[in-house]
Amino acid sequence: QVQLVESGGGLVQPGRSLRLSCVASGIIFSGYDMNWYRQAPGKQRESVATITRGGSTNYADSAKGRFTISRDNAKNTVYLEMNSLKPEDTAVYYCNAAHLRLGRNYWGQGTQVTVSS
């Protein structure tokens, strides 16, 4: 059974930082591209950051320069370091594991991030 479990969300003041973690089980983690998405109230889910199985990264324009995605294959974990948080970063953040060749796509349950003073 595949599980992606996010943690690290919470309430934070604007300008502060948070680090999200996502631990995967039931997959060969190193073979998957890992993604962070977010969904704000009333909005569609959007991609925030991607790290490929080879370690290449890509960011949404809104995340560039502030967020850093990384992975630790030994721990089956992907991270999202978020700095200089803004109220518009408030959303539920979801971890996603994708294997294009196998056509597999898995989601975590999400973790709430609220940026407010």
Would you give an account of this structure?
This protein is mainly β. It is built from no helices and eleven strands. The protein has strands spanning 3-7, 10-12, 18-25, 33-39, 46-51, 57-59, 67-72, 77-82, 91-99, 104-107, 111-115. β4 (33-39) and β5 form a beta hairpin.
Précis, in short:
This protein is mainly β and 117 residues long. Helices cover 0% and strands 53% of the residues.
Largest sheet composition? 7 strands, mixed
**What gross morphology would you assign?**
globular
- Beta content comes to over 45%
Roughly how many Å is the radius of gyration? 13 Å
- Proportion in helices: under 10%
Unreliable spans are none
Q: Termini separation (Å)? A: 40 Å
On the 0-100 scale, what is the average pLDDT?
97
Order of helix and strand elements from N to C terminus: EEEEEEEEEEE
Structural key phrases:
single chain; 117 residues; seven-stranded mixed beta sheet; four-stranded antiparallel beta sheet; globular
Topology:
Layout: E1 3-7, E2 10-12, E3 18-25, E4 33-39, E5 46-51, E6 57-59, E7 67-72, E8 77-82, E9 91-99, E10 104-107, E11 111-115
Parallel strand pairs: 2-11
Antiparallel strand pairs: 1-3, 3-8, 4-5, 4-9, 5-6, 7-8, 9-10, 9-11
